[in-house]
Design goal:
With about 350 residues, this protein is an alpha/beta fold. Helices cover about 35% and strands about 20% of the residues. It binds 6-O-phosphono-beta-D-fructofuranose.
Length: about 350
C-alpha cells in the first residue's frame, strides 16, 4: 500500500485533469491512496488543502480543461515573497516546512505535474529527499527531452481555429490582421498554428525580424492580387536589435515577466509603413482554456499512467517523457537544463518557407 501525493503547478494547460484521472485510477487498481495538493504545494502547508482523491472524485474529468486542484505560477517555496507586518516584502524559504509535512503526512512519493519552473522546484525537493516523479505540462511545448508536452496541441488547435475565422473578415476588408499568440520565449505555437492556419507571416523568438521584410511580404501579396494578409506573432518575438515587449514588472511572487504587446507594435508599424488598414488581436488565455484535444487527452492519460508505473518501479527523480512515440523516464535534471526552441532546420520550418511564409528575415 502506497500513499501518493499529486500536484499541479505553473500556468494551467488542457490535459491536467486527464493526468489526475489516470493517476487516481492507476493507483486505485494497485490498492494505493492518492491525495491532491491544492494550488501547487498548498496541501503540504495546510492539511485542509490536501484532499483525498478516489475514482468517484475524478469521474469524467479527463475531458475538462483547467485543473480540479487549482494551480499557481507565483510563490516558489524556496524563495517565497511575503509581506511582513510593516507591509515590507520579505523573501522566505518554506521548503523545510513542506519537507517536514510531506514526511509527517506519511507520503511515499509526490507526482508533480508542471512546466520547467514547477519541475525545477520538484527537482530541488527531490534533492532534499522527497521521492518525486515529474509530468511535463505546458502549452508552450518548450520542455527539453520530451517530444511533446500536453496542452500544446489544444493551444495550437485554438489558435488555428482563430486564424481560420480571421481569413474571411480580413479578406472582406482588404486588411492586415496581426494575431499575437502565447509561447513565452519559443515559437512553437506561432509556427504550428501559422502554418496550419494559412499565415502569410510568422514572427517568433528564434528568428529576430526586420519589419521592412514583413511589409515587403504584404506588398508582394498585393502585387499578386491578394489584398489581405495574416500575420502571426509569438508574444516573445522581437525585432532585430530590439527587445522583447512585456507588460512591465511581474506580479508579487511571479519569477517571470508577463509578456505581451508585440502584436500591437507590429500592427502599428505595418499601418504606418504600408497605409493598409491593420488590426491586431491577442488570443491570450483562450489558448489555455477548454477541453483538451484527443491528442492531448491521450498523451496526458499516458503520462499519468506511466508516472504511476515509475512509482511502482521506484524510479524517482525522473520525469515521464514522450520520445519517438514511447513513454520513457528521463532525469528531471536533464529536462530542465535548457528550454527547447524551434529548430531552424526542421522540416516544419522548411515547409513554411516552401509554401511562401515569411519570417521577417
Ligand atoms: O507558460 C504558459 C503561458 O501561457 C505562456 O505562454 C504565457 O506567457 C504565460 O503562461 C502567461 O501567464 P499568466 O497566466 O500568468 O498570464
Amino acid at each position: 500500500m502506497k500513499k501518493v501525493a499529486i500536484s499541479t503547478g505553473g500556468g494551467d494547460a488542457p490535459g491536467l485533469n486527464a493526468v489526475i484521472y489516470a493517476v487516481v485510477h492507476a493507483c486505485y487498481r494497485r490498492g494505493w491512496e492518492v491525495y491532491g495538493s491544492k494550488s501547487g504545494y498548498g496541501g503540504f502547508l495546510d492539511i485542509d488543502e490536501m484532499i483525498r482523491l478516489t475514482p468517484r472524485d475524478v469521474e469524467e474529468i479527463y475531458a475538462q480543461g483547467g485543473t480540479i486542484l487549482g494551480t499557481t505560477n507565483k510563490g516558489n517555496p524556496f524563495s517565497k515573497p511575503v509581506k511582513n507586518l510593516a507591509g515590507e516584502i520579505q523573501v522566505v524559504d518554506i521548503s523545510e516546512k513542506i519537507m517536514k509535512n510531506y514526511k509527517r503526512m506519511g507520503f511515499d512519493c509526490h507526482i508533480a505535474i508542471g512546466g520547467d519552473g514547477s519541475l525545477e522546484i520538484a527537482h530541488r525537493f527531490s534533492l532534499l529527499g522527497m521521492q518525486v516523479i515529474g509530468v511535463p505540462k505546458t502549452i508552450d511545448n518548450d520542455l527539453e527531452i520530451t517530444d511533446r508536452t500536453f496542452g500544446f496541441d489544444t493551444a495550437v488547435a485554438t489558435a488555428t481555429n482563430a486564424l481560420d475565422k480571421l481569413h474571411s473578415t480580413a479578406k472582406s476588408h482588404d486588411r492586415v490582421m496581426v494575431v499575437e499568440v502565447m509561447g513565452r520565449d519559443s515559437g512553437w505555437i506561432a509556427l504550428y498554428s501559422g502554418i496550419s492556419g494559412g499565415a502569410d507571416v510568422i514572427l517568433m523568438p528564434e528568428i529576430p525580424f526586420d519589419i521592412e521584410k514583413v511589409c515587403e511580404k504584404i506588398s508582394d501579396n498585393e502585387l499578386r492580387d491578394k489584398d489581405y494578409s495574416i500575420v502571426v506573432v509569438a508574444e516573445g518575438a522581437k525585432a532585430e536589435g530590439g527587445e522583447v515587449i512585456s507588460k512591465g514588472e511581474g506580479e508579487l511572487g511571479r519569477e517571470e515577466v508577463v509578456l505581451g504587446g508585440v502584436g500591437e507594435w507590429v500592427a502599428s508599424e505595418i499601418r504606418s509603413r504600408t497605409d493598409k488598414d491593420t488590426r491586431s488581436l491577442v488570443l491570450g488565455h483562450l489558448q489555455r482554456g477548454g477541453s483538451p484535444t484527443t491528442f492531448d487527452r491521450l498523451l496526458a492519460l499516458r503520462f499519468g499512467a506511466a508516472a504511476v508505473r515509475l512509482v511502482e518501479e521506484g524510479t524517482f527523480g525522473h520525469m515521464v517523457a514522450l520520445i519517438s512515440s514511447q513513454m520513457k523516464a528521463v532525469p528531471i535534471s536533464e529536462a530542465i537544463k535548457s528550454r527547447k526552441m524551434v529548430d531552424l532546420n526542421s522540416d516544419k520550418l522548411l515547409t513554411a518557407r516552401d509554401i511562401g511564409i515569411c519570417f521577417g528575415d
